[in-house]
Amino acid sequence: MSEVLVLVDHAAGEVRKVTLELLTAARRLGEPAAVVVGESGTAGKLADSLTAYGASKIYVAESAEAGQYLITPQVDVLASLVSSAQPAAVLVPASIDGKEIAGRLAVRTGSGLLSEAVDLDAEGVAAHSLFGGAYQASAKATTATTVVTVLPGSVEAEAASGAGEQVTAEVPAQDAGRAATVTGHQPAEAGDRPELTEAGVVVSGGRGVGSAENFAVIEKLADSLGAAVGASRAAVDSGYYPPQFQVGQTGKTVSPQLYVALGISGAIQHRAGMQTSKTIVAVNKDPEAPIFDIADYGMVGDLFKVAPQLTDEVEKRKS
Amino acid sequence: MNIVVLVKQVPDTWSERKLSDADHTLDRASADAVLDEINERAVEEALLAKEAQGGEVTVVCMGPERANEAIRKALSMGADSAVHVSDEALHGSDAVQTARTLAAAIGTLESVDLVIAGNESTDGRAGAVPAMVAELLGWPQLTYARKLDTDGQSVSIERESDAGVATVEANLPALVSVTEKINEPRYPSFKGIMAAKKKPVSTLSVADVGLSADEVGLGSAPTQVVSSAPAPPKEAGVKVTDEGEGGVQIVEFLSGQKLV
Ligand SMILES: Cc1cc2nc3c(=O)[nH]c(=O)nc-3n(C[C@H](O)[C@H](O)[C@H](O)COP(=O)(O)OP(=O)(O)OC[C@H]3O[C@@H](n4cnc5c(N)ncnc54)[C@H](O)[C@@H]3O)c2cc1C
Ligand SMILES: Nc1ncnc2c1ncn2[C@@H]1O[C@H](COP(=O)(O)O)[C@@H](O)[C@H]1O
């Protein structure tokens, strides 16, 4: 059975959930081999989780340069593994970095690139959701190796024990003339809330929230539901909430079990990032707001009355 | 300093977008076509760099004949000239083939210092074409810039991603992609619109950029779409008006769905 490489997404010594989803998908296609690229000492902390989700091999590519250059260290490691291991596929998370790593890898290895897959079958056919969920398509590559980026949260991670054999892999020296140097880094504040694209529940606020201070109303509701917080572009552009939380066409695509939209009109570009959510609840004072066209439960009302009551009621039922 | 801006014409996100039944390619006729908003910001950033450093801004676009309108818009904002790669053979090209064509088109231009692209297009959302073009040119990539500085020798950006904000630097020539937070693009002035009509646009075929027709297009794409269909539309559920118990009613609904 041929190998299927999975690029491990990790932060602060932990495997991110999407990696476990990718390992699960990889098992359908062949023998999953996790690829860890990071500074020295990274793989040791991740090995247990990777093995518990079926990694039969763990390629360990550790070097100080991994954190000093943008994208190219991962591409270089994967490219050399593609030529030595001849994998059926390389699975990469469809994140900002992941999409770029996959793109460069596909070019360098002459492989077909399937992007933002929401599912993958044993034949390597990927399912895609297009135009924000308005269209569905499936596609496959005609090349020996397929490079696939998979949207976080689209495959259910299932545990399966693997051999987890660690194999050292080289991080080729970076050429400063062809690579970009990372000279500073200000990590995003890691709050206690779940990551937006991984969360089971997302509570989002729009322009109707009115100010950055008022977003506390959204955050309180989110915390009572154990949810991630999202925002519309109008809320982000008005400075109410930071850009990395934008949901929509040009922001994040989310597909949680529950999406709660407060003070969001439901413009087509916002819907493009959330309309595949399983259940949608909307609160808006305008009964004609388009968000109600896709809401499973729509509440016409003032969010400043409805949201705090909703938060209290959830808390009450918990205790 | 010579700057290339990669611009793409896309179906307007406000209109209904679909794929053609015949070959699963983007049905360009069914929707209004516009210059992708992110590329207006890329053009703006190129113009700002030109204003500070001097030089020329060249627009490079791959797309069917009507992409000309998007090119004219970029020229009316203030870009100096354009290269339009337009060829029947390109129909159905995938992201890898698009990147090859764009890199080849850039290769026909003399001494390019900086290429500026959008971070992600609103139609394909590959979010990978800029990185692939950098790979093909053998240049550093500085992507997802929310701020860009260049002195004509090197370039530095603030890169905003999920991990936080990184400062990334490289020597020119280099490729930068920008996010929608980088600037507010200028509106073309009446004078700009008139001037754009006279600016040079060279239309190149696949052969003109040095590729052969069997390297591009649907037939030779390394990926193939095997099926496509509109997703079943999402139906609206119930809509109630808050009479003072709205929050409690939502919790009741959620508990009925086993969501709380
Ligand atoms: C190329 C492009 C890309 C875009 N990408 C995105 C994207 O990624 N994400 C995105 O969200 N948008 C995106 N947009 C913008 C989109 O078109 C809308 O402008 C935006 O989604 C509107 O945000 P909003 O619903 O918060 O604001 P508005 O449309 O202003 O709606 C505010 C709503 O709040 C309601 N409201 C006000 N006060 C209250 C109250 N007290 N209680 C209850 N309800 C209240 C109002 O009735 C109104 O419906 C994009 C647009 C373009 C052209
Ligand atoms: N056909 C094209 N012509 C010119 N530029 C393009 C084309 N396709 C993609 N690009 C550039 O690459 C960016 C990202 O596109 P994508 O990788 O398709 O999401 C766009 O904003 C453009 O700058």
From TrEMBL, chain A:
<dbReference type="InterPro" id="IPR029035">
    <property type="entry name" value="DHS-like_NAD/FAD-binding_dom"/>
</dbReference>
<feature type="binding site">
    <location>
        <position position="284"/>
    </location>
    <ligand>
        <name>FAD</name>
    </ligand>
</feature>
<dbReference type="InterPro" id="IPR014731">
    <property type="entry name" value="ETF_asu_C"/>
</dbReference>
<feature type="binding site">
    <location>
        <begin position="232"/>
        <end position="233"/>
    </location>
    <ligand>
        <name>FAD</name>
    </ligand>
</feature>
<comment type="subunit">
    <text>Heterodimer of an alpha and a beta subunit.</text>
</comment>
<dbReference type="InterPro" id="IPR018206">
    <property type="entry name" value="ETF_asu_C_CS"/>
</dbReference>
<dbReference type="GO" id="GO:0050660">
    <property type="term" value="F:flavin adenine dinucleotide binding"/>
</dbReference>
<dbReference type="GO" id="GO:0033539">
    <property type="term" value="P:fatty acid beta-oxidation using acyl-CoA dehydrogenase"/>
</dbReference>
<feature type="region of interest" description="Disordered">
    <location>
        <begin position="173"/>
        <end position="197"/>
    </location>
</feature>
<keyword id="KW-0285">Flavoprotein</keyword>
<comment type="similarity">
    <text>Belongs to the ETF alpha-subunit/FixB family.</text>
</comment>
<dbReference type="InterPro" id="IPR001308">
    <property type="entry name" value="ETF_a/FixB"/>
</dbReference>
<dbReference type="Pfam" id="PF00766">
    <property type="entry name" value="ETF_alpha"/>
</dbReference>
<keyword id="KW-0813">Transport</keyword>
<feature type="binding site">
    <location>
        <begin position="263"/>
        <end position="270"/>
    </location>
    <ligand>
        <name>FAD</name>
    </ligand>
</feature>
<feature type="binding site">
    <location>
        <begin position="246"/>
        <end position="250"/>
    </location>
    <ligand>
        <name>FAD</name>
    </ligand>
</feature>
<protein>
    <submittedName>
        <fullName>Electron transfer flavoprotein alpha subunit apoprotein</fullName>
    </submittedName>
</protein>
<feature type="domain" description="Electron transfer flavoprotein alpha/beta-subunit N-terminal">
    <location>
        <begin position="4"/>
        <end position="187"/>
    </location>
</feature>
<comment type="function">
    <text>The electron transfer flavoprotein serves as a specific electron acceptor for other dehydrogenases. It transfers the electrons to the main respiratory chain via ETF-ubiquinone oxidoreductase (ETF dehydrogenase).</text>
</comment>
<dbReference type="Pfam" id="PF01012">
    <property type="entry name" value="ETF"/>
</dbReference>
<keyword id="KW-0274">FAD</keyword>
<dbReference type="InterPro" id="IPR014730">
    <property type="entry name" value="ETF_a/b_N"/>
</dbReference>
From TrEMBL, chain B:
<dbReference type="InterPro" id="IPR033948">
    <property type="entry name" value="ETF_beta_N"/>
</dbReference>
<keyword id="KW-0249">Electron transport</keyword>
<dbReference type="InterPro" id="IPR014730">
    <property type="entry name" value="ETF_a/b_N"/>
</dbReference>
<feature type="domain" description="Electron transfer flavoprotein alpha/beta-subunit N-terminal">
    <location>
        <begin position="23"/>
        <end position="213"/>
    </location>
</feature>
<comment type="function">
    <text>The electron transfer flavoprotein serves as a specific electron acceptor for other dehydrogenases. It transfers the electrons to the main respiratory chain via ETF-ubiquinone oxidoreductase (ETF dehydrogenase).</text>
</comment>
<comment type="subunit">
    <text>Heterodimer of an alpha and a beta subunit.</text>
</comment>
<dbReference type="GO" id="GO:0009055">
    <property type="term" value="F:electron transfer activity"/>
</dbReference>
<dbReference type="Pfam" id="PF01012">
    <property type="entry name" value="ETF"/>
</dbReference>
<protein>
    <recommendedName>
        <fullName>Electron transfer flavoprotein subunit beta</fullName>
    </recommendedName>
</protein>
<comment type="similarity">
    <text>Belongs to the ETF beta-subunit/FixA family.</text>
</comment>
<dbReference type="InterPro" id="IPR012255">
    <property type="entry name" value="ETF_b"/>
</dbReference>
<keyword id="KW-0813">Transport</keyword>
<dbReference type="InterPro" id="IPR014729">
    <property type="entry name" value="Rossmann-like_a/b/a_fold"/>
</dbReference>
<feature type="region of interest" description="Disordered">
    <location>
        <begin position="223"/>
        <end position="242"/>
    </location>
</feature>
<dbReference type="GO" id="GO:0005829">
    <property type="term" value="C:cytosol"/>
</dbReference>
